[in-house]
Design goal:
single chain, 424 residues, alpha/beta, Alpha-Beta Plaits, Rossmann fold, 2 domains, seven-stranded parallel sheet, 10 helices
C-alpha cells in the first residue's frame, strides 16, 4: 500500500511539474479551452471577465491598470488568483507574454452542486450482495423512464447514460436527479451514490399528465421499467388512470410500472368504504390501485415500515403495497430501489434468453422472493414483504419459475419438486 501511495503521489507531482514547465514555454497552454475557443471564435468583442493565476514573486505591475478593475480573490504561499476585465487583444499582447502568469480562464463559470445520495444503504435490501454475486448484471442496455420532472442530465453520475426524448419535462428538479441516481447512479461523485442498475440508461417523462405515455413511445424508446415516485393526495378508488396503467402493462408485455405508495401514512381516505380509517387505505393516487403494477412502501434501515409510508388496502381489499423497501426519506426512494432491481432482473433474463421477460414474471419474482417482515405473512402495511434483490436474482438464475396462461374455464397443472428438509 505504501508503494502504491508513493507511486500515486509521484505521478501527481510529475503531471503538475510537466504542466507548469509547458505553460512557461507555450503561451496557448496558459488559456483555458473554453476561453481559447471564445477568443478564437470571436464570441466576445468586449471585455472578458477573467481569473488569472500569477506567481507571487512575479506579479506584473501592469495588471493593476484601472481598465482591468483588478481584484485579488485568492492567495497561497506560491501563487495568487486575480479577477480582471480584459479584451482579447489585451489577453494576447499584455497578459500572456508575462512569465509570471500561470493560467487564464473565464471568471463567469457558474458553480453547481453535485447531488450526492449520502444515506443510500444498499445492504438493507441485499442489493450490495447482487453487485458482488452478479458483477456482470448492471442493467447495461436496459432503459428506464423516470416519470416526473427532468433530472440534471449533466450530473456526473448520469452523464453519458441519459436518453433524450420528446417526453421530458422542461423543468429540471433535484428530486428527479436523486431518483435517477438511486436507480442508475454511477458513483462517480461519491461511493454511496452507486445506483442499483448502475449500467442502465435513464430517460425522463413529464408527469404533467397523470396517464401512461403512449404505447408507441415505450416501444420506440425500448423502455421496460417506468418509475413513478409521486402522488396527488389520498385517493381510495380505481380510477381511469388505474385502468390506463393496467392497459399499458398488458399492451407492453415487458414494461413494468412501479409506484411509490406515498407519504401519507397517518392520513385517512375521505371517500370509499375505508373513509375515516386512520393509518390505512391512504395510497396517494388512484393510479396506484392498478392491478398489473407494483406499489412500494418505505421502511427504515431495520426493515420497519415508516409511520409516514402510505398503506393499503386497495379500494377493493387487494393487498397494497405489494412490497416495501428501504426509503428512510419516504416511499419515493423505496420505489426507485425496486425499479433498479427490476432492471437487473431484466438484464439477467436477457443475458440468458436474448429477449426481455414478461412484466408479470418480474413482478411475481419480486413478490415471492421478498423477506417476510413485520406481521407474519401478508398484510396491508408490509405487503408481501421487503425487497430482497439477491433472492430475486437467484430465483431467476436458478429458473425457479414457470410461465403459462389460461382462459376462462380452462385448467393447467404444473409440478413442483420440493427438496428434502424444506421447512416452508
Amino acid at each position: 500500500m505504501d508503494t502504491y501511495i508513493a507511486r500515486f503521489l509521484i505521478g501527481l507531482l510529475s503531471v503538475f511539474i510537466t504542466h507548469c514547465s509547458v505553460a512557461q514555454t507555450n503561451e496557448n497552454t496558459k488559456l483555458s479551452p473554453g476561453l481559447s475557443d471564445e477568443i478564437k471564435n470571436a464570441k466576445n468583442a468586449g471585455r472578458f471577465l477573467l481569473e488569472i493565476t500569477v506567481k507571487n514573486d512575479k506579479v506584473p505591475i501592469e495588471i493593476w491598470k484601472p481598465a482591468y478593475q483588478t481584484q485579488k480573490i485568492f492567495e497561497s504561499p506560491i501563487f495568487s488568483v486575480y479577477r480582471i476585465f480584459a479584451t482579447a487583444e489585451e489577453i494576447h499582447s499584455a497578459l500572456l507574454p508575462f512569465p509570471g502568469i500561470i493560467f487564464i480562464e473565464k471568471g463567469n463559470r457558474t458553480p453547481k452542486e453535485e447531488i450526492q445520495v449520502g444515506n443510500l444503504d444498499l445492504s438493507v435490501n441485499k442489493i450490495n450482495l447482487v453487485h458482488r454475486n452478479f458483477p456482470s448484471v448492471n442493467g447495461d442496455g436496459i432503459i428506464v423512464s423516470v416519470k416526473e420532472n427532468k433530472p440534471d442530465t449533466t450530473d456526473i453520475d448520469l452523464k453519458g447514460r441519459f436518453l433524450s426524448t420528446s417526453l421530458s419535462s422542461n423543468t429540471v428538479n433535484s428530486h428527479a436527479t436523486i431518483m435517477s441516481t438511486m436507480i442508475a447512479g454511477g458513483a462517480n461523485s461519491w461511493h454511496l451514490g452507486k445506483g442499483v442498475a448502475w449500467g442502465s440508461t435513464i430517460s425522463s417523462s413529464s408527469f404533467a399528465v397523470l396517464l401512461p405515455d403512449p404505447n408507441s413511445a415505450y416501444q420506440q424508446y425500448n423502455i421496460s421499467v417506468q418509475n413513478h415516485s409521486y402522488g396527488v393526495g389520498v385517493e381510495s378508488y380505481y380510477g381511469a388512470d388505474a385502468v390506463a396503467y393496467d392497459a399499458s402493462a398488458v399492451s407492453n408485455g415487458s414494461l413494468l410500472h412501479i409506484f411509490s405508495s406515498g407519504n401519507s401514512g397517518a392520513s385517512s381516505a375521505s371517500t370509499g368504504i375505508y373513509a375515516g380509517l386512520n393509518g390505512f387505505a391512504n395510497l396517494t393516487g388512484s393510479f396506484k390501485m392498478a392491478k398489473n403494477i407494483l406499489t412500494v412502501g418505505a421502511t427504515d434501515s431495520f426493515s420497519i415500515v415508516a409511520a409516514l409510508s402510505s398503506k393499503g388496502p386497495a379500494h377493493d381489499g387487494r393487498v397494497k403495497p405489494e412490497l416495501v423497501a428501504f426509503g428512510e426519506d419516504g416511499s419515493s426512494g423505496a420505489a426507485a430501489l425496486v425499479s433498479g432491481t427490476s432492471l437487473l432482473l431484466q438484464h439477467l433474463y436477457k443475458q440468458v434468453n436474448g429477449v426481455l421477460p414478461a412484466n408479470s414474471l418480474i413482478r411475481s419474482i419480486l413478490i415471492n422472493s421478498a423477506d417476510d417482515v413485520g406481521n407474519a405473512e401478508v398484510d396491508y402495511k408490509n405487503g408481501f414483504g421487503s425487497l430482497n434483490a439477491n433472492n430475486a436474482l437467484k430465483t431467476l438464475q436458478a429458473s425457479r419459475f414457470f410461465v403459462g396462461s389460461i382462459s376462462n374455464s380452462v385448467s393447467q397443472s404444473f409440478t413442483i419438486t420440493v427438496p428434502g428438509g424444506i421447512k416452508n
